[in-house]
Structures are given as C-alpha cells and as structure tokens.
Amino acid sequence: MKVAIVGASGAVGQEFLRVLDERNFPLDELVLFGSSRSAGRKYTFRGKQIEVKLLQHNDDFKGVDIAFTSAGAGTTKEFCETITKHGAVLIDNSSAYRMDADVPLVVPEVNPEDALNRPRNVIANPNCTTIQMVVALKAIENLSHIKRVHVATYQAASGAGAAAMDELYEQYRQVLANEPVTVEKFAYQLAFNLIPQIDVFTDNGYTKEEMKMFNETRKIMHSDIQVSAMCVRVPALRSHSESIWVETERPISPEEAREAFAKGEGLVLMDNPEKKEYPMPLFLAGKDPVYVGRIRKDLANENGLTFWIVGDQIKKGAALNAVQIAEYLIKVGNVK
Ligand SMILES: NC(=O)c1ccc[n+]([C@@H]2O[C@H](COP(=O)([O-])OP(=O)(O)OC[C@H]3O[C@@H](n4cnc5c(N)ncnc54)[C@H](OP(=O)(O)O)[C@@H]3O)[C@@H](O)[C@H]2O)c1
Fold first, then answer.
1. How confident is the model at residue 54 (pLDDT cuts 50, 70, 90)?
2. Which of 69, 70, 198, 323 to mutate to test the pocket of ligand 1 (most atoms within 8 A of CB)?
3. How far apart are CA 189 and CA 171, in angstroms?
4. Residue pLDDT, tens place only, 82-125
5. Which CATH architecture has domain 128-155+193-309?
6. Looking at residue 157, what DSSP letter applies?
7. Is the per-residue pLDDT at 41 higher than 80?
8. 150 included as an active-site residue
C-alpha cells in the first residue's frame, strides 16, 4: 500500500501523519507533497525522515493507492487528474467536489457504502462542522426522522489553518504586551472577540460555511432535512463546538436521546450537569470521538430536542474521517 499526503505541512496534513501512525494504518510507503514553500522540508513518520516533494504535473502518483489531499480547493481541482490518472483513490478535504453528483461525500458512521460508488475515483470529506454534526444526528435519525435542525457553531481558530492558529497566539501576546495587533488570516482581531462570519456571504445572507451545513447534511444523510446554521469563529485554538436543536417526526425524550448517543458510533456521552460535566473544546483537542452533552427538551417545540457537541475538527472533522474512509475501503476489499 502506497499512500500520498498532499499538503503535508498544513494543519490537516500534519494530523494525517499522526492519525496514520496512531491507527497503525497498513502502508508500505508514504510520499508527501507540498508547494515550493514546503518542498524539501523533512517530516518524521514511524522513525523515518520523509522529504516533501513539489506537487507537479508529472507521474509521481504512479503506484500510489490512496492520496489524501488537504491543500485547498484550487489545488485539488488543478491536480485531480494528475493524482488519479494512474488509479489512485483521491480522498479530498477541500470543498472542490463535495456537491458534485459523481463524487460521494462520506462520513463512515453515516454513509460508508457511498464511498464504493465513485466514478471519478474521488471521494470528498465533508466540511468539518458538518462531519461532527451528522455523527450526532445519525443517532437521533435512527429513532425518528429529523425534519429540521437549527445549529449555532463555535469554531476554533485552527479551522482556518496552521497560520491562523499561530495568528491567534500572536494576537493574545500582542494585546497583553500592548502592541498593535496583526490581523491577516481573519477579517478582524479574534483574540478577546467573536467573529460571526466564516467564509464569504452568499445571496441569501447566509455564509458559504452555513450553506455547506445545509447542502452537505442532506447529501450525506440522503434526507430532506432542513438545516439553518449560524457559524461563528471563536478564540478557541482547536475543536469546534455546536449548539444543536432538532425537530423530529415524533417527540424524543432526553432519556431516549441519551441512550442513543451513548451507543452511537463515534460518539461519547458526556452529560452530567450535577457534576458540571459537559464537553468543552479546551479539554477535547486531539480526541477521536464527537462528545455530546447538555441534552434537554426544547422548551419552544413539542417535537424538539437540544444538545451540545464538541469534536476536534482537524481530527474527526478532517484527517481522521478521511483515514476512516480509507480503512473502510481496505476492509471491504475495494482498494488494494
Ligand atoms: N483546518 C481544519 O480544521 C480543516 C478541517 C477540514 C478541512 N480543511 C480543509 O483542508 C485543507 C487544508 O487546510 P489546512 O487547515 O491544513 O490549511 P493550512 O494549514 O493552511 O495548509 C495548507 C496546505 O496546503 C498546501 N498547499 C497549498 N497550495 C499548494 C499547492 N499549490 N501545491 C501543493 N500544496 C499546496 C500547503 O503547502 P505549502 O506549505 O507547501 O504551501 C499546506 O501544506 C483546506 O482545503 C481546508 O478547507 C481544514
């Protein structure tokens, strides 16, 4: 098994190195790619130093079985043909092809089989906020069909990449040192602030990030579910949090939901208000599962339920989900 990571120097690329190692992913050779900014840099994987190659239009992907790409939508679109032409399965973290009808959009806890039907040999990893939400929604959908979702997200700085995380650290240092604050990766200073905009605005007043949650959830769940999202950048470093309200066809009690979450795949129930136990991003960075807490009846809707989730968006929201897709393909014998 030969595996490639495109965008190895990035926040998601670095997580791929950790996740592949942690999960003992069955690979014989790993190749790393980047732009001229990181080409030549070396990263250690399982005790061996691997040099980052410059991503180019050549035959470097000959013999590669699985290519994990996390280098932005533009890079995926430009290099898709180069990466897949010799037979590699491309599992992409960007938004390039997520909504294309001939590209499956996969979260292994929800729709693994979709990965088997990939006419272009491309599989898309959903948006990070959508991934962690659908893992939780699946547990409820198994009880009663979800008609509507309202969700407010609290998204960490690292969702905008490695440099954005560094910028947040630097902003806190600058504020405390009474220095002018550098603002490059976000529209405004994020330290000591909240920014109610992620990605650009669309014609209906929602941002692209919010529309991803609407469209991608429907595609992954094969459902007519309606999702109204409000996405907010918060000055947490890592792990996204989401406050979710669902309306189901029949009323679901908090007890029933708790039981479903407790046994739901990829979920951990953390819901003990008396002991002040609930998920928080500071303490769940680097963890695999999606954590669920604050489960209660919606006071404004007879068929409503509300809860709070936290998941590491670089892990389950990106690298881990992609690796789980690859593991599924290997398990069912759909890739070498
Ligand atoms: N961060 C998250 O939480 C998260 C979650 C889900 C999905 N994603 C998606 O994953 C992708 C990467 O995000 P990130 O957070 O890891 O960003 P990042 O930290 O900014 O890293 C970007 C990576 O892309 C590489 N790259 C850029 N242009 C390239 C090119 N022309 N050729 C080869 N490599 C190129 C960079 O390599 P150089 O250093 O060599 O330029 C770098 O390794 C994005 O599409 C993002 O939307 C991110």
1. very high
2. 70
3. 7
4. 999 999 999 999 999 999 999 999 999 999 999 999 999 999 99
5. 2-Layer Sandwich (3.30)
6. G
7. yes
8. no
Look up 240 and say whether it is catalytic.
yes
Q: Where are the domains of the chain?
A: 1-124+317-330, 128-155+193-309
**pLDDT band, residue 63 (cuts 50/70/90):** very high
Neighbours of 248 (CB within 10 A): 19
Please tell me the predicted confidence (pLDDT) of residue 242: 98
Q: Please give the distance, rounded to the nearest whole angstrom, from the Cα atom of residue 258 to the centre of ligand 1.
A: 36
The beta-strand segments (E) located in the chain are 2-6, 29-34, 42-45, 48-54, 66-69, 89-92, 122-124, 146-155, 226-233, 240-248, 267-269, 290-297, 304-311
Residue 253 labelled as part of a binding site: no
Q: Which CATH superfamily is domain 1-124+317-330 in?
A: NAD(P)-binding Rossmann-like Domain (3.40.50.720)
> What is the distance, to the nearest Å, from the Cα of residue 83 to the centroid of all Cα atoms in its chain?
22
User: In whole angstroms, how far apart are CA 18 and each of 172, 180, 240, 323?
Assistant: 28, 36, 19, 11
